[in-house]
């Protein structure tokens, strides 16, 4: 078992370059199943989730080869539209192969997916949308099975702007007969990136980034070259870490317009923000001010930044309120932050954080990806030594996190623990 050992109190300074977005790379990798030729994906991060998705599409009959930060993906043989259960259990986003498989191959049989235990993420919107396009879907013995003689365009209203359902239905509709219109669609930048990738292959999609997306089905999608957008959550995590340590950090190769809700809250907490074309410089306050925050679908404050901000709120001057409106079970990191001395009270989906003057190092365990990021930030600002267990969660979404923080001046290293 590996742990991160952090000796806190070091101010972060310097430059960090943001990697490609995990949450854009995964649906785009799934979308390569629609292509008749090779796709060359650039700026693909080296993450555990990316490796699992590569194994998923490889198991379906695709050739996947990594060259540096690029992935080459091409059809290698006849696609077998059934995903092994052991792969699906490792990654929630593995369900994104359903739309491409049904759209191009007219059939799939997949187990229910796994992923971080942060709350209920039901599949009903995915299934209802596919059925609206003419699929026959059955659920039994832990599997979802769907078949069609050919999907047809339809109008479909999403009860909630689910990112995964929006992506799955976009991909399914790309080769469907006629026009599909998705109402109340998710608006995340990763949705726009998927649209741009599909259009680069020959799809006819417009509206991503707004709440109505129109997909005009085409006969065929071809391979293409495509560069994935930078990871806004990784950028936000480095910004929060810099603010927590009173640091001065330039976050390069990011898209500031994707982070406006996060930047607004950091500014409210007292950080100085300088926005450049593709970079953000942050100068952290001596001690952050307390703020109130509520997670919302994009362009609201992202749920994937809630744990990192709770770490920052733990040492803020005053009382902060955090409302988690997306997932009902995403406060597990609060109990671990308390081990470091944080004063946090949880009532349902509301956390009340009374800021303390400082945290003290201790042993903590990450329960999921973003909880792990929060504990690392807490360890950076805590007095003494913090040991973070559950490092494998961090490897799902951050590439060489300890090295890049170390390059900014953090005293952090990864060790094997027997």
TrEMBL record:
Reaction catalysed? phosphoenolpyruvate + UDP-N-acetyl-alpha-D-glucosamine = UDP-N-acetyl-3-O-(1-carboxyvinyl)-alpha-D-glucosamine + phosphate
Q: Which SUPFAM superfamilies match?
A: EPT/RTPC-like (SSF55205)
Q: Name one GO molecular function term.
A: UDP-N-acetylglucosamine 1-carboxyvinyltransferase activity
- Tell me the pathway: Cell wall biogenesis; peptidoglycan biosynthesis
Q: Where does phosphoenolpyruvate bind?
A: 22-23
Where does this polypeptide localize?
Answer: Cytoplasm
Q: What is its EC number?
A: 2.5.1.7
Q: What class of enzyme is it?
A: transferase
Please provide an example of a Pfam family that matches this protein in its UniProt record.
Answer: EPSP_synthase
Give TM segment ranges. Answer: none
**Residues that coordinate or bind UDP-N-acetyl-alpha-D-glucosamine:** 92, 121-125, 304, 326
Which keywords annotate this record?
Cell cycle, Cell division, Cell shape, Cell wall biogenesis/degradation, Cytoplasm, Peptidoglycan synthesis, Pyruvate, Transferase
- Enolpyruvate transferase domain residues are 7-405
| Positions bearing 2-(S-cysteinyl)pyruvic acid O-phosphothioketal | 116
Q: Which GO terms describe its biological process?
A: cell division; cell wall organization; peptidoglycan biosynthetic process; regulation of cell shape; UDP-N-acetylgalactosamine biosynthetic process
The entry's active site is 116 (proton donor)
Matching InterPro entries: Enolpyruvate_Tfrase_dom (IPR001986), Enolpyruvate_Tfrase_sf (IPR036968), MurA_subfamily (IPR050068), RNA3'P_cycl/enolpyr_Trfase_a/b (IPR013792), UDP_GlcNAc_COvinyl_MurA (IPR005750)
Q: Name one GO cellular component term.
A: cytoplasm
- Purpose: Cell wall formation. Adds enolpyruvyl to UDP-N-acetylglucosamine.
Q: To which protein family does this belong? A: Belongs to the EPSP synthase family. MurA subfamily.
Q: Which HAMAP family match?
A: MurA
Q: What is this protein called?
A: UDP-N-acetylglucosamine 1-carboxyvinyltransferase
Q: Which species is listed as the source? A: Neomoorella thermoacetica
Taxonomy, top ranks, is: Bacteria, Bacillati, Bacillota, Clostridia, Neomoorellales
């Amino acid at each position: 078992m590996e742990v991160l050992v952090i000796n806190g109190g070091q101010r972060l300074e310097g430059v960090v370059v943001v990697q490609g977005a995990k949450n854009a790379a995964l649906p785009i990798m799934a979308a390569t199943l629609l292509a008749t030729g090779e796709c060359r994906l650039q700026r693909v991060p080296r993450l555990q989730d990316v490796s699992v998705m590569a194994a998923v599409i490889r198991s379906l009959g695709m050739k996947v080869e990594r060259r540096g930060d690029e992935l080459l993906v091409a059809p290698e043989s006849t696609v077998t539209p059934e995903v092994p259960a052991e792969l699906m259990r490792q990654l929630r986003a593995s369900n994104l192969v359903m739309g491409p498989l049904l759209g191009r191959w007219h059939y799939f049989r997949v187990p229910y997916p796994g992923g971080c235990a942060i709350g209920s993420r039901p599949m009903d919107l995915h299934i209802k949308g596919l059925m609206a396009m003419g699929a026959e879907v059955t659920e039994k013995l832990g599997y979802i099975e769907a078949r069609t003689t050919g999907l047809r365009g339809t109008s479909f209203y999403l009860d909630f702007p689910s990112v995964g359902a929006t992506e799955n239905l976009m991909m399914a509709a790309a080769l469907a007969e006629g026009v599909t219109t998705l109402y109340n669609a998710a608006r995340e930048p990763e949705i726009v990136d998927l649209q741009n990738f599909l259009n680069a292959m020959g799809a006819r999609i417009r509206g991503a980034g707004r709440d109505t997306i129109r997909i005009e089905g085409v006969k065929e999608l071809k391979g293409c070259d495509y560069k994935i957008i930078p990871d806004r959550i990784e950028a936000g995590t480095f910004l929060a870490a810099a603010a927590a340590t009173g640091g001065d950090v330039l976050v390069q190769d990011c898209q500031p317009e994707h982070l406006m809700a996060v930047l607004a809250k950091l500014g409210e907490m007292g950080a100085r923000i300088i926005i450049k074309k593709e970079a953000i410089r942050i100068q952290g306050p001596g001690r952050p001010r307390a703020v109130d925050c509520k997670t919302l679908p994009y362009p609201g404050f992202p749920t994937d930044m809630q744990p990192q901000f709770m770490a920052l709120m733990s040492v803020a001057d005053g009382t902060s309120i955090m409302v988690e409106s997306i997932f009902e079970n995403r406060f597990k990191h609060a109990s671990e932050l308390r081990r470091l001395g944080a004063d946090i009270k949880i009532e349902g989906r509301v956390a009340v954080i009374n800021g303390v003057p400082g945290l003290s190092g201790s042993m903590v365990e990450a329960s999921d990806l973003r909880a792990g990021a929060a504990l690392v930030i807490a360890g950076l600002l805590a007095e003494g030594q913090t040991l973070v267990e559950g490092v494998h969660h961090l490897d799902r979404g951050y590439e060489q996190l300890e090295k890049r923080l170390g390059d900014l001046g953090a005293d952090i290293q990864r060790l094997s623990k027997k």
